[in-house]
Specification:
This protein is mainly beta. It has one domain (21-111): Domain of unknown function DUF5300 (Immunoglobulin-like, Sandwich). It has one helix spanning 5-17, and strands at 24-31, 38-43, 46-50, 58-63, 69-76, 82-90, 96-103, 106-111.
Length: 119
């Protein structure tokens, strides 16, 4: 029995295109001269973080957005001062790169248009 050519073509297309689930690929970078002692990034429905982040170091984390809401960064600097920064609004299904840079002047957020959304 020969396989149906349409079935073979469909299976080949599915195998080459694959499936893509929407994820945000976050990078948190410490652009200060001091170690960040504790950091946490809150996003809709969950959070992630690290115990410390050395000067010039990056932390990478991939997450799926369920629900919608603003990002929020909380961190403690080397002088044990606590800081909070509000980030962009995310909608469920956000997909793409996000960079959070902690600098001596504050926090900057760089999100692709497919990540950050208007409310």
């Amino acid at each position: 029995m020969r396989p149906n050519p349409a079935y073979v073509l469909g299976a080949a297309l599915l195998a080459t295109t694959g499936c893509h689930s929407p994820y945000v690929n976050a990078t948190v970078t410490n652009r200060t001269a001091q170690t960040i002692l504790l950091l946490e990034v809150d996003y809709p429905s969950a959070s992630f973080g690290a115990q410390n982040l050395a000067p010039g170091a990056d932390m990478h984390y991939r997450f799926k957005v369920l629900g919608s809401g603003n990002l929020k960064l909380l961190y403690t600097d080397s002088a044990h001062a606590d800081h909070t920064a509000s980030g962009p609004f995310l909608k469920e299904g956000a997909d793409g790169p996000l960079t959070i840079a902690i600098t001596s002047a504050g926090v900057t957020w760089q999100a692709s248009p497919t990540v950050a959304a208007s409310k």
